[in-house]
Design brief:
The complex is a heterotrimer of chains A (about 375), B (about 240) and C (about 325).
Chain A lengths: L1 H16 L1 H21 L7 E7 L4 H12 L3 E7 L3 H8 L5 E5 L3 H7 L6 E4 L4 H22 L21 H32 L1 H6 L5 H31 L7 H25 L3 H18 L12 H9 L1 H15 L3 H25 L6
Parallel strand pairs in A: 1-2, 1-3
Antiparallel strand pairs in A: 3-4
Helix pairs in contact in A: 1-9, 2-7, 2-9, 3-6, 7-9, 7-10, 7-11, 7-13, 9-10, 10-11, 10-13, 10-14, 13-14
Chain B lengths: L7 E10 L2 E11 L4 E6 L5 H8 L7 E6 L2 E2 L4 H7 E5 L10 H11 L4 H14 L15 H13 L5 E5 L7 H16 L3 E5 L3 H4 L4 E6 L2 E6 L1 H8 L4 H11 L1
Parallel strand pairs in B: 3-8, 3-9, 6-7, 7-8
Antiparallel strand pairs in B: 1-2, 1-4, 4-5, 9-10
Chain C lengths: L2 H5 E16 L2 E16 L3 E5 L6 H8 L7 E6 L8 H4 L3 E4 L11 H11 L7 H11 L15 H13 L5 E5 L7 H16 L3 E5 L3 H4 L4 E6 L2 E6 L1 H5 L5 E6 L3 H8 L7 E4 L3 E6 L2 H15 L5 E5 L3 H16 L13
Parallel strand pairs in C: 3-7, 3-8, 5-6, 6-7
Antiparallel strand pairs in C: 1-2, 1-4, 8-9, 10-12, 10-13, 11-12
Helix pairs in contact in C: 4-6
Classes of the chains: A alpha/beta (about 375), B alpha/beta (about 240), C alpha/beta (about 325).
Chain lengths: ~375, ~240, ~325
């Protein structure tokens, strides 16, 4: 036990002495939260709208008010010729254009359907589809109110659960915790173990009475502490900057996070048993753990829309399961009964990986 | 006459790092075709001095000329005229022997025709022809050392700086290496070399011994031994450093 | 245990070890040790010398249980380092060739780390650390980071770290390579003190003056022992007469003498050339005539005693020419 502590203590000194890395580890959570929280904002708001009103009636002005009054659109320009629309699209002045026909007011009184044209800049397909949905809602609302007020007093009420404001930051911040933990545990651990191989100090330690599992666990302890610290920082930054809630039990989150940490560490250790140099370890950790955790876990891209093979890979990687757990606890307030299968998978996975690593970790040099 | 001018001349060469004076008013001359041993304890300032002479580090004071060019003014031109080889053998392990030579020929701006000609000459001269298509990392240490020396000789430098060129190389290889060095010197290349092997110091035409940034002794090995009445340069060295 | 067994601290017989090395696209088998036999006695200072790739490091690693031999027996302190490694770990101090400590830890932190992992009893810790700091003369630098020490001080710190558990057997793999002569001298003075205290030392070195300080020396080559004995005994194995020619033109003289076929070897030194020959009276006359004819001056031609290095170089040269012609010297290519 004392061996373990002395190795951990030494590792702490290494980390403390390496001021730049330490700074990165502490600033990383803040930076990532800001980057993902603000830059990859997938909420569509204030879309630049141009309007070509050929009707110029109280009815058409009512429709325009519907659009400009919503959060989705921001009126940028009113046009009077059709050709101006394309010009404004090209200058990136507007993202969408609403064309109201000249017979709008009369048609809305007499006809069953009234065509209104909406032109959308499709070069950003993501924004495009959101604009389309938003407009449909506004138009249906408008048509009910104006034409069918007498005939069909129907009211559409829609509501979205769990993330009522549909904020992507609430979705991203829990995912960040998974990615950061993966980075610290898999990347830093594997680098720190291979560094001792490279400098020859491992050869020296192997002839001392220290046992291999003590070397591994001792070296890993500081990174567990760091990863937990970073997870806490991400949660705090997320709460302060974006108001990410903590709906479920913090204790349950801590326990399940530690299980995820184990899996991530096991991956890091496994890498260090294979890689001979720090460089190779870094490449393997980036390709083998970081990339899948970001791309395939459902952190940003929804798993459901991936091809089958990627969906299968996604099912296997630890981050996918941890994302379900952490989003469940933070946003839905899920408890143990709902989340235990995911935690069990992580536990079994780390058990298998650690068993392989300890078997592979060589006491000898050949 | 350019031949009359010393190959290397240093006058009060000084380098400070903050308060620490690594090289302290060092003056010496090295003749053309001379093998000059630059000895000193670990941390005596040898590497700093070599870096200044190669134009890699600006002196804090003093001046030095390498093959007639001032290190303060012409450090770029100097690099075309010198060869440098260090203990670490700065070769690319994952390149073939001939690819390493091609690379360094390019680094010294040799024309393609010259590069090919020099490469073949070097391969022949340093007995590397049979391994030209081998990966550098598969060579024994002594062979890598020859390749490193060959790479430093591609552009036919007038002055060759060797910073502990024989570290970790076995005695036979060291001997072969020194005979090669003397062969180069006999043809007019000036050799400026540092080493920790005091028996190697005996191979030098002249040596200097440096301690705490200053040169504390300089001269022909036989004369130094006679002056201190000691049988080997190693004894002279230990006597001087311990006495200092 | 018989008294004879207690006397021997390392016993290796018929050790063999082969590596598979990648060479270009093909894999090549390299025999690091071939049927290697060696006994080191308790209390001895034993030196291993030999060229790069002779098998010295492999042998030391096997003794420490870091490598498994392909075949053969080995016993260290009476135990098998492979199956009973845990029994000897507390009694062996091993300093690997590349060992450079933790550069970002201070002298004191490095020592403390090894005190911890060797589980030095708590009450003895500070006394032992103090003694080692004093012994290695590193006391004034105890707060300095290892990376900022000079080469000689680093090696002394590394040695101190391997001494922290007061081992009975020290195994040092080229501990002084790249260290200046003054620091080397101090390092060997420390080894001498340790031997006085009863520690057995097995050390490999590329420096012949260090080998000469050992009680016994084994000259290894291509995984085998070529010569074994006290430094004097090995020097005595020089098979010919040795003559030294002092001259101001050693390079030219050596080149000229290489063309005389009666000489067994010609070696260049700084201010002289040594030649191995038989029948000195006649041959020295031939040498004189030859040099006079070419107009090379010399101050004296003395017959002398071969020392350890003369013998080592001679034996190596014979072997490298006999077994590995491609490793032979490349002198002829640029002799005048």
């Amino acid at each position: 036990m004392s061996n373990l502590i002395s190795i951990a203590r030494k590792e702490f000194i290494h980390i403390r002495r390496d001021a730049r890395s330490l700074l990165i580890i502490i600033l990383m959570p803040l930076l990532q939260v800001m980057l993902y929280g603000y830059a990859i904002d997938m909420d569509v708001k204030n879309i630049r709208l141009g309007i070509l009103d050929q009707s110029h009636t109280p009815a058409s002005r009512e429709l325009i008010r519907k659009f400009t009054g919503s959060d989705y659109f921001e009126l940028r320009t009113e046009m009077d010729r059709f050709s101006q629309i394309e010009e404004n699209f090209r200058k990136r002045k507007i993202k969408a254009a609403l064309v109201i026909p000249a017979d709008y007011a009369t048609s809305i009184q007499r006809e069953a359907t009234t065509p209104v044209q909406l032109l959308i800049d499709g070069s950003d397909s993501n924004t495009g589809s959101i604009v389309l949905n938003a407009s449909r809602q506004l138009l249906s609302l408008a048509s009910f109110e104006s034409s069918a007020a007498a005939r069909a007093p129907l009211q559409i009420r829609h509501s979205i659960w769990y993330n009522p404001e549909q904020k992507s930051s609430h979705f991203i911040v829990p995912g960040l915790i998974a990615v950061l933990m993966m980075m610290i545990c898999a990347l830093l651990t594997s680098i720190s173990i291979t560094r001792e191989k490279e400098t020859g100090t491992l050869e020296q330690i192997l002839v001392t009475p220290v046992k291999p599992y003590q070397i591994i666990i001792g070296k890993v302890i500081p990174y567990v502490v760091l990863a937990t610290l970073d997870a806490f920082l991400v949660l705090e930054f997320g709460r302060i900057l974006f108001g990410v809630p903590m709906t479920g039990s913090p204790l349950l989150l801590l326990i399940f996070s530690l299980i995820f940490l184990m899996a991530a560490l096991a991956l890091g250790i496994l890498i260090s048993t294979v890689a001979r140099t720090q460089q190779v370890a870094m490449m393997m950790a980036l390709m083998g753990t970081m990339l899948p955790s970001i791309m395939l876990s459902g952190f940003i891209f929804p798993v459901a829309s991936m091809p089958l093979i990627l969906r299968l890979i996604s099912k296997a990687i630890p981050a996918t399961h941890f994302l379900v757990i952490i989003r469940g606890i933070l946003l839905k307030g899920n408890g143990f009964l709902v989340l235990w299968p995911y935690a069990l998978y992580l536990f079994l996975l780390s058990f298998v990986l650690i068993a392989i690593s300890i078997k592979r970790f060589k006491v000898r040099l050949d | 006459m350019p031949n009359e001018a010393p190959a290397i001349k240093a006058e009060n060469l000084t380098r400070r790092f903050g308060k620490f004076i690594a090289v302290d008013h060092v003056s010496f001359e090295v003749r053309r075709g001379e093998v000059f041993g630059f000895l000193g304890a670990n941390g005596a300032g040898k590497t700093t001095a070599i870096r200044m002479l190669c134009g890699l580090l600006h002196p804090s004071g003093g001046e030095a000329w390498v093959s007639g060019l001032s290190i303060n003014q012409d450090s770029r031109k100097i690099r075309q005229r010198i060869g440098y080889m260090s203990q670490k053998f700065s070769l690319y392990d994952d390149l073939l022997v001939e690819e390493n030579l091609d690379f360094f020929a390019g680094a010294y701006n040799l024309s393609v025709a010259d590069a090919n000609k020099r490469r073949d000459e070097i391969l022949k001269r340093f007995s590397l022809e049979e391994v030209r298509r081998r990966l550098t990392k598969s060579l024994p240490l002594g062979w890598k050392q020859r390749l490193a020396l060959g790479s430093a000789m591609l552009h036919q430098p007038e002055v060759l700086f060797l910073d502990e060129p024989t570290g970790g190389v076995d005695p036979i290889m060291r001997r072969n290496f020194w005979e090669t060095i003397h062969g180069l010197a006999a043809q007019g290349t000036t050799i400026f070399v540092t080493t920790h092997y005091m028996d190697e110091a005996e191979y030098c035409h002249r040596i200097s011994i440096m301690n705490y940034g200053k040169i504390i002794a300089m001269g022909e090995p036989s004369k130094l031994k006679a002056e201190f009445g000691l049988p080997t340069i190693q004894d002279v060295f230990v006597h001087l450093i311990k006495g200092a | 245990m018989t008294s004879q067994m207690a006397d021997v601290i390392i016993r290796a017989s018929a050790l063999s070890k082969t590596y598979s090395v990648k060479e270009g696209r093909a894999r090549k088998q390299v025999q690091a040790l071939r049927s290697f036999d060696l006994e080191v006695k308790t209390g001895e200072m034993f030196g291993l010398i030999g060229p790069d790739g002779a098998g010295k490091t492999t042998f030391m690693r096997i003794l420490c249980g870091l490598l498994l031999p392909d075949s053969g027996q080995v016993a260290v302190l009476g135990f098998d380092p492979v199956t009973q490694q845990h029994k000897i770990k507390q009694d062996i101090g091993y300093m690997p060739q590349r060992f450079s400590l933790y550069q970002d830890l201070t002298v004191e932190e490095n020592l403390n780390f090894f005190t911890d992992i060797f589980q030095v009893p708590r009450q003895e810790r500070s006394a032992r650390t103090q003694r080692l700091l004093e012994f290695s003369r590193l006391g004034p630098f105890s707060k300095r980071r290892a990376g900022a020490l000079s080469g000689g001080m680093k090696q002394k710190l590394a040695l101190s770290c391997t001494l922290i558990h007061t081992p009975k057997l020290l195994i040092l793999d080229e501990p002084t390579t790249g260290v200046d002569p003054v620091s080397r001298g101090e390092f060997w003075d420390i080894l001498g003190e340790l031997q006085q205290q009863g520690v057995t030392i097995l050390v490999s070195t590329p420096y012949m003056d260090e080998a000469a300080r050992c009680d016994r020396v084994a000259l290894t080559y291509a995984g085998q022992i070529l010569a074994l004995g006290t430094p004097d005994q090995i020097a005595g194995q020089f098979p010919h007469q040795l003559v030294r020619i002092f001259t101001r033109q050693p390079y030219d003289v050596a080149a000229a003498l290489r063309q005389l076929e009666i000489l067994h070897s010609v070696e260049l030194y700084g201010d002289h050339v040594t030649v191995a020959l038989d029948d000195p009276v006649t041959v020295v006359e031939i040498i004189r005539k030859n040099l006079d004819k070419r107009g090379y001056s010399y101050t004296s031609i003395d017959s002398g005693q071969a020392d350890l290095e003369d013998t080592f170089v001679y034996l190596m040269r014979q072997l490298s020419q006999a077994t590995q012609p491609e490793l032979g010297n490349d002198l002829d290519s640029h002799a005048k």
